[in-house]
Each structure stands twice: as C-alpha cells, then as structure tokens.
C-alpha cells in the first residue's frame, strides 16, 4: 500500500477517535451539565455558552493558523490540537465554571490548529488524481465518529432520568481514553512521500502573514464569496443545532418516556448514519455525481431534507425543550421517538449534502487562493455556530427552527446562484471546475 494512502488512513483513524469523543460530549454536554447542577448547585456553567466560546475562539484563531503551521508544520500542529481536546474533556471531572470556559477557549484555538493542519497534511499526501479519493476516505472515517461514542451513551444512559456522578465519570473516562488513542495515531503520521503532479490545495509558507490576511479580506469582499458566505453561515447554524441543541431537546422532553436521556445517544448515531451515507454518495462518488448532475441539485436536495426535518421537529418537540426537563408537548402527542430519530438521520444526510458540495466548490472555483477560501469558510461557519449557541440559551425551539428555515432557504439559493454563474463560464474553466 502506498505510503501516502497509509498516512490518509492514519489521519482518518486519528480524527475518527478524537471526534468520537468530542462530538459525543458536545451532543450530551447540556444534558450532562443539567445533571451536574442538580448534584452541585454552586456550579453555574452552561453547555451552550461553552460551545459558543469554543466556536468563537476557533473563528478568531483561523486567521493566524496558516502562519503558525508554516513554523511548526501540520503534524505537530495536529498533535497539539488533539491534546487540547483531551484537556477539555478532562475538565468535566472537576466541575468549575472558570475551568470549563477556560478550557473552551483553549480548545477553540486547538481546533483551529488541528483542522488547518488536517487541510495542509491531506493536500501534501494527495495529487490531482488522488485528492478526491483521499478526501472521501477521510470524510467517511471522520463521520463514523458519530457511531461509537453515542452508542456508549445510549446504553449507559438507559433508563436514567438523572445522570449521576458515577455514570458521568465512566463516560468521561472512556471518551478521554479514546481521544488519547486518536492522539497516538496522529503522532504516528509520517512525512508525506514526494508526489508527482500539482497539489490541488496548497497553503503557502512563502506568503507573509500580513499579505495572506489582506488577500483573505479582498476575497471576502468579492460578490461570489459574499453569496457563498450566506451558505457557510447556514452550515454553521445547522451544525450547532444538530450537534448541541437537538440532542439535548430530545433528552429534556419527559413525554418521550423514561428513555428520553437514552435517545440523546441514539440521536447521534442516526445523524452519523446520514453523514456517512451522504459522504460516501457525494464524497467518494463525488466526481460521478457532480459531473452528471452538478452541485446545485445535491445542495437543493440537502435543503429539502433539512426543511422536512425542521417541520417534523416542530410538530414533535415542545418549544421549551432546549432549556431543561419539561413536561410540555407539541402537536404530536405523545412525542414520537421514531420521528425524532428519523429527523436525526435527515439532519445528518442534509448536512453531508451541503458540506461535501461546499468543499467541492471551494476546491474547484478558488484554486488560486485555497488557503484564503478555506479560512473564510471556517471563519464564517464558526462565527455562525458560536452565535447560534448564544441565542440557543434564550430562544425557544420554534424560534430556532424559524431561523434555520429562513437561512436554509436563502443559503441554498445563494449557492445555486454561484453554481449557475460558474457553469456559464468558458468550457475550459467548467471542465476544470467539475474535477
């Protein structure tokens, strides 16, 4: 097996394990903190605020990471970033609001390191002929992280309406151990072997940090990027909703039954099924699907899937569900766990539709400025996710769904406008774009 393919598999395996831990914790964080407050009334931390801080720090850190990577390299950057994930999870053993929010800031900076490092390292391991394959392998392995940790939560939380300290400690210990194994895999990454051909994505160390920043600002002001940024904002809002809010809303809805907390984990599993299915269909097989249908039908399909999910969630869960345990009900009485899990699957599949096509668009249309383009994408998405976690602490479920519907429709339209404009350009550019 070629050396670079082994590196990609190690990269995907490391990220799968690290995000098995973090995505599971993010999914149950508000539920866990609600139980901690009952056992320890002096603890005033908030899960949504913690996640908002993480994404805010991530968005701000994105602008300086290319210059940091030019100094330390992507492998060391990813190892340091992985350590911050372990520290964040370990902070839950000592519930203290300052420690929680402080580790959230550190994790935000570490997340910028690990994701920027991932983009650079994956490009170094790829050529124009292998980038699609390698990206598809990485995406599919990453999204498998939604399965294992959430299955642990599903069985551990079985029959529990309150997550006691012993149960919490078991979950934290397992998640940290899994993340450490992921860190070990990332530490085993080898220097990429020399590739023949041009790299499709580059982060140049020759560009001065100030010049790179100015280039990104100029690109941000172009009409095409302004339109795409609306789509990026929507992906950030939907990410925060299904990764932090929706699972908690299910767990807080008492009318679902004594298994409500258990379904928080199963929700993550079904999101992962949708993500992996979409990743395989539009990532590994992306060249065929985009060549035959283009990117706009896939994004439109993602928008339709999300609209259907939001409508069913509106009917199924009460407005007060994100805030804490509630006996309230919505239009479907009693709330249906089956419908809730179907919505989880739709959210994951729709998210895969949006994200695979956003990456494809950025890698194809902005080949001359890939670092700036991906930096804008991560920055915009992270700001939106942070804002969403802030208003999630104050806005009911129905208001959040209205925001998602409006931004989802607008974001789908703006993506299609850019896609149509690109298709109208000269044939040579279009052929290059479709690759």
Automatic annotation (TrEMBL):
It comes from the Eukaryota. InterPro entries: Ion_channel_UNC-93 (IPR010291), MFS_trans_sf (IPR036259), UNC-93-like_regulator (IPR051617). Its main location: membrane. It is a multi-pass membrane protein. Coiled coil: none annotated. The chain crosses the membrane at residues 48-69, 76-93, 99-116, 137-157, 169-189, 225-246, 266-286, 298-317, 337-354, 375-394, 400-422. Keywords: Glycoprotein, Membrane, Transmembrane, Transmembrane helix. GO terms for cellular component: membrane. It is found in: Membrane. Belongs to the unc-93 family. This is UNC93-like protein MFSD11.
């Amino acid at each position: 097996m070629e050396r670079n393919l082994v590196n990609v598999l190690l990269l995907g395996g490391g990220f799968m394990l690290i995000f098995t831990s973090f995505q599971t914790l993010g999914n149950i964080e508000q539920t866990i903190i609600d139980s901690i407050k009952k056992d320890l009334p002096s603890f005033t931390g908030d899960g949504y605020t913690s996640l908002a801080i993480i994404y805010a720090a991530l968005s701000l850190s994105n602008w300086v990471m290319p210059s940091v990577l030019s100094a330390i390299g992507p492998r060391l950057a990813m190892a340091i970033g992985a350590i911050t994930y372990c520290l964040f999870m370990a902070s839950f053993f000592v519930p203290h609001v300052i420690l929680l929010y402080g580790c959230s800031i550190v994790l935000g900076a570490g997340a910028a390191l690990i994701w920027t490092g991932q983009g650079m390292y994956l490009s170094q391991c790829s050529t124009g002929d292998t980038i699609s394959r390698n990206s598809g392998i990485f995406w599919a392995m990453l999204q498998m992280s939604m399965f294992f940790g959430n299955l642990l939560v599903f069985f551990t939380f079985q029959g529990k309406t309150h997550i006691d300290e012993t149960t919490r400690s078991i979950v934290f210990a397992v998640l940290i151990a899994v993340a450490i194994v992921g860190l070990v895999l990332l530490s085993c990454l080898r220097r990429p072997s020399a590739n023949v051909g041009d790299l499709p994505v580059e982060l140049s160390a020759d560009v001065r940090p100030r010049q790179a920043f100015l280039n990104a600002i100029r690109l941000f002001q172009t009409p095409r990027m302004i339109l795409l940024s609306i789509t990026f904002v929507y992906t950030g809002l939907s990410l925060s909703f299904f990764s932090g809010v929706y699972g908690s809303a299910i767990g807080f809805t008492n009318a679902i039954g004594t298994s409500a907390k258990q379904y928080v984990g199963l929700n993550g599993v079904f999101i992962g099924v949708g993500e992996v299915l979409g990743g395989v269909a539009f990532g590994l097989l992306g060249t065929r699907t985009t060549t035959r249908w283009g990117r706009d039908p896939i994004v439109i399909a993602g928008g339709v899937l999300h609209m259907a999910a939001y409508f069913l969630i509106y009917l199924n869960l009460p407005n007060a569900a994100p805030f804490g345990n509630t006996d309230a009900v919505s239009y479907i009485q009693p709330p249906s766990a089956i419908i809730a899990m179907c919505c989880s699957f739709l959210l994951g599949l729709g998210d895969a539709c949006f994200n695979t096509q956003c990456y494809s668009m950025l890698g194809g249309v902005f080949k001359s400025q890939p670092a700036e383009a991906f930096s804008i994408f991560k920055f915009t998405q992270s700001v939106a996710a942070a804002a969403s976690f802030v208003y999630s602490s104050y806005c009911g479920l129905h208001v959040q769904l209205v925001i998602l519907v409006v931004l989802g429709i607008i974001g789908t339209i703006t993506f299609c406008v850019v896609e149509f404009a690109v298709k109208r350009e000269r044939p040579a550019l279009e052929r290059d774009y479709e690759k």
